[in-house]
Structure to design on (572 residues):
């Protein structure tokens, strides 16, 4: 009956697909740390090359890699979406994305000729639109939607629009188009990427995983059914309006702040209602993430009244802390669980336990390093040399994550080679 | 009572016993941990039996599909049963690290399994099975003991 090793596994892509996305994400994290070593406090000036470069290492390099990895994994298992030939699809997405990101960063920094922008844009545009295209196509065909799968659809739609806008921006920067709508397009690009893609994706993922990992009551349906599409709808609406009424931006940002704060508070509440009283590091990563989101959004609102460089910078730091905290929280669950799950599904009696893949102590130590990085970055706005410490901490923690992925891979291969295996009956 | 609510309640009941066992084990209260774990295992296995002997066959008959969702569910039941055995061993050995590690896998496995059932399978059952047959299946499930 289980001639193909059981359906759970048939549905899930090979573990290496996920690990490879995560590995690329971690290496880009190391790169972000190195970039910070060079740029130092320059990153706090939003109009600087340093800020644009640093932001794109984090968003394109780190976040997109982790999020695509998570989606490739989660869509089949949780949303029931089957992607055929996942390895091939992952290759088509990942390699152009990496090369494109590196070329774009180069172009930002070294007064590049326009063809470098063009090639970077082509590689990134095609790979990201291809990935979101196949995922959207599979999602739209789903007969039974959950709040989570609907939210993922909204997030991928936001990503696609953000990428199209980015292509437009690149064409302007490369001198192919005139720049009369540059500012409105740039503004829409940022909001769709940060709120529509990263924000909505994290929101939709939490509808599933908070309940699943921590055994909490589900999110209130009023929130889980509406939040994702309301955010997407508002962003698109304001994005279009901005071409005519650029002065509406404070209203848009205040609405985003309101919605995201509501989400963060519900999540914090759910975490406190969890049935499993045991608290591991990942619970705290979520809490730090949600706390950071609230603070980031409060700063975003404050910025409408007193726009100082400090407020803008702090809001950005907290938003990055929000996104990265959630990535870390997911990482320390997903990597050990998948390693165990795949091997166990294949019938290996000695499938390594989750603690043997990544011990919770390591996650706990990372938690402290993460907090220290956050504090250093916040303080470095006043005392610049602290960026150096933050940079080193970032290099260390992402370096360690890269190592942990390699370790998981080694454990996996070793079990497959040496482990005793049950015949699951063919 | 609907099939869906009847089954969901059992999922929640399993969670409660499981969380209790995990909490006691974390505090090295082995006797209490074992007691809660045994209840968890009983409730879970009875629930599986209700699904495998009554609900799934009805679903398969109505949809004419024995290779689809119910096959995944049965396979995951086997995985859960395997973990129950390993966890019982860890409890016997009072091996806290192993127990907590296994319980982590168990919780994720079971939660994603339950969510798939609640969001897809049970929902499909409610929509597809005719009312009388639903009533009959529910009654039959209530009769099942381990
Ligand atoms: Fe089940
Ligand atoms: Fe069930």
């Amino acid at each position: 009956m289980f001639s193909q090793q059981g359906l759970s596994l048939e549905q899930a892509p090979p573990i290496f697909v996920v690990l490879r996305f995560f590995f690329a994400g971690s290496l880009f994290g190391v790169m972000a740390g190195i970039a910070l070593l060079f740029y130092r406090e320059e990153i706090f000036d939003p109009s600087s090359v340093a800020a644009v470069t640093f932001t794109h290492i984090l968003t394109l390099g780190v976040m997109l890699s982790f999020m695509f990895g998570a989606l490739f994994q989660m869509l089949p298992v949780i949303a029931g979406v089957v992607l055929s030939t996942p390895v091939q699809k992952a290759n088509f997405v990942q390699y152009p994305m990496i090369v494109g990101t590196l070329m774009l960063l180069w172009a930002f920094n070294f007064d590049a000729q326009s063809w470098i922008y063009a090639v970077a844009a082509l590689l990134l545009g095609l790979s990201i639109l291809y990935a979101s295209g196949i995922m959207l196509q599979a999602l739209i065909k789903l007969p039974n939607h959950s709040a989570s799968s609907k939210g993922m659809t909204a997030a991928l739609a936001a990503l696609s629009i953000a990428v199209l806008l980015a292509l437009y921006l690149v064409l302007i920067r490369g001198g192919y188009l005139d720049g009369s709508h540059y500012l409105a397009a740039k503004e829409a690009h940022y909001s769709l990427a940060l709120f529509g893609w990263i924000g909505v994706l994290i929101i939709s993922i939490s509808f599933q995983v908070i309940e699943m990992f921590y055994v909490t009551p589900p999110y209130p349906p009023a929130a889980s059914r509406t939040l994702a599409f309301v955010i997407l709808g508002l962003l698109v609406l304001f994005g279009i309006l901005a071409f005519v009424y650029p002065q509406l931006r404070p209203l848009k940002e205040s609405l985003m702040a309101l919605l995201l704060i509501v989400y963060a508070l519900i999540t914090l509440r759910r975490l406190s209602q969890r049935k499993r009283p045991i608290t591991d590091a990942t619970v705290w990563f979520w809490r730090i993430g949600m706390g950071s989101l609230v603070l980031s959004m409060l700063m975003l609102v404050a910025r409408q009244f007193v726009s100082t460089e400090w407020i803008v910078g702090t809001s950005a730091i907290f938003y990055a802390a929000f996104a990265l905290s959630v990535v870390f929280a997911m990482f320390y669950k997903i990597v050990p669980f998948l390693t165990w799950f795949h091997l166990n599904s294949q019938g290996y009696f000695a499938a390594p336990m989750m603690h043997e893949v990544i011990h919770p102590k390591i996650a706990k130590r990372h938690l402290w390093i993460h907090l220290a990085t956050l504090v250093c970055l916040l303080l470095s706005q006043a005392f610049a040399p602290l960026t150096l410490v933050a940079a080193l901490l970032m290099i260390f923690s992402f370096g360690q994550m890269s190592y942990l992925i390699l370790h998981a891979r080694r454990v996996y291969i070793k079990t497959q080679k040496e482990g005793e295996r049950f015949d699951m009956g063919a | 009572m609907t099939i869906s609510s009847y089954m969901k309640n059992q999922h929640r009941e399993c969670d409660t016993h499981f969380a209790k066992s995990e909490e006691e084990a974390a505090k090295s209260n082995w006797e209490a941990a074992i007691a809660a774990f045994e209840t968890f295992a009983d409730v879970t296995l009875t629930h599986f039996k209700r699904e495998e002997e009554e609900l799934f066959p009805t679903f398969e008959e109505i949809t004419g599909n024995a290779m689809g969702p119910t096959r995944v569910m049965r396979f995951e039941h086997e995985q859960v049963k395997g973990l129950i055995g390993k966890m019982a061993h860890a409890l016997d050995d009072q091996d806290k690290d192993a127990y907590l590690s296994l319980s982590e896998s168990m919780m994720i496995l079971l939660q994603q399994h339950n969510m798939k059932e609640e969001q897809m399978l049970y929902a499909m059952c409610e929509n597809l099975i005719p009312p009388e047959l639903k009533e009959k299946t529910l009654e039959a499930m209530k009769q099942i003991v381990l």
User: Anything to note?
Assistant: The radius of gyration of chain B is 16 Å. Residues 42 and 125 of chain B are 25 Å apart (CA to CA). The domain at 3-143 of chain B is CATH 1.20.120.520 (Four Helix Bundle (Hemerythrin (Met), subunit A)). The pocket of fe (ii) ion (ligand 2) is lined by residues B 7, 11, 47, 51, 114, 117 (CB under 6 Å).
